[in-house]
Structures are given as structure tokens and as C-alpha cells.
Amino acid sequence: MNNLTKQLANLYEPKWKELKQQLDAKGIKVQSPFMLGVALERNNQGGYVDESWWTDADLKVMVFGQEPLNWPIPILDDGSQVQSDDFVELYQRFYSDNYKGQYFLTDSDNHLAKNKFFSMGFNGIMSGIKDFVLGEQYSDKKVAYLWNNISKLSVGGRKGVDSGIHDLEKEYFHVIPQEIEITKPDVLIFLTGPGQNTYYRYIQENFNVKGSPIPLAGNDIDAVAKLDIEGVSLAYKTYHPTATKDGDRGIKDAEKWQYYHAIFDDMKEHFDDIFNNK
User: Fold this and answer.
1) Domain 3-276, classified CATH 3.60.21, yes or no
2) Is the pTM higher than 0.90?
């Protein structure tokens, strides 16, 4: 287990053990907790050993979804109890199979990779940063992308967790601040929905957000905004790719693309700041 992944695993293990005890005591069943791993399987090196794709990148972007819907429970051949390392490996296996550096596979056997979060959201952000932010000026820069979720738990299907389960997560599995310290992303993009919704409160629980959200290029501040987050060069928030409504108002993909481009424009305007601070 490599350096960053070992740090992440050491972070998760005691916290997950304590949270699991609390969930079991209350008879609460959840899907797999969402634990990151940075070591990928590459070039027949044997196991999950390659962290260089992330550590050597010139620009590190972490993209947050809402919660890990349909994130499967690992099944161990020997019948032993699933440990936190197994959840880390689950993430690394998904990433090794589907993350191809400049895009996510959307035609693999993994049903998650077919989700619009990846086909439009993640892939759209990756292609947009490549074409509109880097362009020819920064074409030599290597960019790496890491998937995260602002809530680490779900109850399966299309449901997040209620306030009671979230309070347990907040008390016993409050890991995102340490994930940021370990992985050190330059840019955070939260595809977590409009305005100051429940997921915005989760953002505030995990980050020191200074002041109020900042509007971008005359767009509705509830639809897309820049966040001033301590310790992070750039941070943005906009709709989840699968969103079709904001209250009673319908939302089309073209509108979501407009907001993505507002993010790209602001990133490009402040790109020199990132590299000058490295």
C-alpha cells in the first residue's frame, strides 16, 4: 500500500470501526462507505501500486458528487468480515477499470460508469478543462481528477441518508478535511446542487468557507458560484449532472453546460495563480 493510500486507510480504519458499531447498535444498514484510494493498477505492475498519476500531476482536481448511491458492498471470497481496506480497494478497482486520464469509460461493464454523473459531469469537466482552460498555452500540463462525495453514506437505491444517520457520520466519520490534507487538490468542483441546500451545509461542515458564495459572469448565484475555501486555490459549486428540476423550474443540459463554462472561464482567468503558488 503506497504512501497516500496508506495515510487514507489509516485515517478510515478506526473511524469506520467506531461508526459501524454505532450503526449496528441502532440497527441501521447503509451501503458501502465512500473511501478514497489513490494507488491504481497500471501496466501490469501487480496490484494497486501506482500513485504517480496523481502525485506527479501539475493540476489536481477533486470533483464532489452528493452521496455514493449504488456503491456496492465488497464480497470477500473467504467469507471474512469486510474491513476499511476493502472499501479503499473497491474505489481503486473502479478507478483502475474506468478512469483513463482524460475521460471516464462510459461503455464498460460497470453500471456506475454509465451514469450521467460521469458521462456528462465528470467527462464534461475533464474535456472542458482540457479544451477551454488549458488550451495551447498549458497543453503540456498534466491534470489528474479524483472523485469524491460530500456525504460518505447512502442507504441504497436513489436515497441519501436522513439527518440522524448524517449526524452519526458527522460525529464518527468526519474524514473529508483529512482527505484534503492528504491528497492536496488544487481545485474543488462540487456538483451538489443549487443554492444553500442540504449539500451546501455539508460543504460548510467540512470546509472553512469564507464569506458568501461569489457569482460568476452574471449567472444566477444559486445555479453556479465560486467558493472561497481556506487552503484550496479554487472552488466552485453548481448543479448535479442528473438534475432535471430546481423547484418547479425545469433544467436542461444546455443550461448546465452554461454553468460549467462559467467555471472554466473563471479557472482560466486565475490559472496562473495556481502554478505561481506551487
Assistant:
1) no
2) yes
